[in-house]
Amino acid sequence: MPVINVEELTDKDKAVMEVDQxxxxxxxxRWLTSKCCEEIKDYIQEGVEEDILVKGISEEKxxxxxxxxxxxx
Length: 73
Hints:
G-protein_gamma-like_dom, methylation, Guanine nucleotide-binding protein subunit gamma
């Protein structure tokens, strides 16, 4: 898709682009926020057992664990 410099467009060209975008957006299916939130919550809860952000990484599989401690003499 070519890059369009908006400063070089006429007001008519900008209006045509905006109308085209609105035609695309009006065709999108809209959902209630409450329904979306419930579905997202259910999806997250289904995968909570495998989610490392929730349960953490085991010490054996953690590639970033410290190899040794810091000793100050």
